[in-house]
Amino acid sequence: MAVTDTLAEYFGFEEHGTDLQTEILAGITTFLAMSYIVVVNADILTAYPEDNVPGGIAIPGYTPDQVFQMLAVITILASIVALLVMAFYANLPFGLAPGLGLNAFFSITVVGVLGVPWQTALAAIFVEGIVFVLLTLVGARKYVIRLFPEPVKRGVGTGIGLFLAIIGLQAMGIVVDDPATLVTLGEVAQSPVAVLSVLGLFFTFGLYARGIRGSIILGIVTTTLAGIALTFAGVVDTGILAGNFVQSGAFVPANFTGAQYDISPLVGAFADGFGQVDGFAFALIVFTFFFVDFFDTAGTLVGVGQAGGFLDEDGNFPDIDKPLMADAVGTTAGAILGTSTVTTFVESATGVEEGGRTGMTALVISVLFLVSLIFVPLATAVPQFASHIALVIVAVLMLRNVTEIQWDDFAHATAGGLTIIVMPLTYSIAYGIAAGIVSFPILKTAQGEFDDVRLGQWVLAGAFVLYFVVRTGGVLQGAL
């Protein structure tokens, strides 16, 4: 009882309208939704020479499987560092881990296509993290985020909702790629994953509609257990519905021989990366990592903050410097340990929707990551299609934020609408924000309302144009 009272007082449960049970449920929900990153991040960052795919981290004397296991451990450790800062310094319920997209840019583009040594790529991320820490300390990151036009702030939540929806529906096999239309409906009736996902999704919708507490967790767990039961019963082949843990009729991990806990070949390797590439090219790499991470994190905090009622009447996130510091420290620590940029996860919305309002939620997530270190594959015991049911549920709930945009003002409608549309279609929160920020001052000026645009908003728009020239105009390739 004393421990419960201490936690309630430290995290301010009464002040935030929550309790320990709610925070624990929220932490478990977010962890289940984002735990896939342990394996996915390690897989993206590992070099597999036998597949003839350029890029990734290769260490002489170690097999790709061993490097993969090191990176899985490092992914967990970097996440824990950032989560502890989020829990005890920011006192907010957001989950952090090495981010998707940036890890692919690290492995495929920087290391693979550009031929930059992976140690140098880690050095660039370390510099990015230090810059983030310094900018956060002086309040510069908060200032930039407050420059976001009003419709962009109001549109981010809905954009993230659509982004979560497409991620979830893809993992569930309901939406698939198509060479003619980019995306289309999958062969749902022929896919055991899609059928079970649809049943699990509507089961969870039903629980939520009934107001049952912990409905998202119940939906994920029920769908997972159903997959395991169908596998053991021989209805489907092993490895289809039961994630990494049912092989040959036994509850054992797939393709895993034991965790490689010796991560010394990666820890501190970033230091060897300085000086292996010329200064201008190095600066461009840092700039690219910096830009995407900055606006991905800002968009996630604003969007999820909107869903959780953290924003004030002006659409600003009070004390946003604190969660930004968690991101900055996590990025710096991740680079030292040997992984790509750590960022705030959009999957945090699942825990916030379950009622998470304090750092206790982040602490629970960190404890669950720590427990998964005992046996690394436990972090992905829940198959991705089951955990991503939570993303679709939350996506639907986040669409309600669209009503906060001033649709009768064309500049607001355009900036907010482009933020929402571009985000899922480019698979990037940052690019959605960019579309809104660039369009707003142009449309305001066209409407004869130039005086309503702040100088800083023009500067932000120009910075995004510069970023896209560097990112898509071949500037990086030309510098190397």
UniProtKB/TrEMBL annotation:
The chain crosses the membrane at residues 24-48, 68-89, 96-116, 122-144, 156-176, 188-209, 216-236, 280-304, 360-379, 385-403, 415-443, 455-476. The keyword Flavoprotein does not apply. InterPro entries: Azg-like, Azg-like_bact_archaea, NCS2. The keyword Transport applies. It is a multi-pass membrane protein. Belongs to the nucleobase:cation symporter-2 (NCS2) (TC 2.A.40) family. Azg-like subfamily. This is Two-component system chemotaxis family response regulator CheB protein.
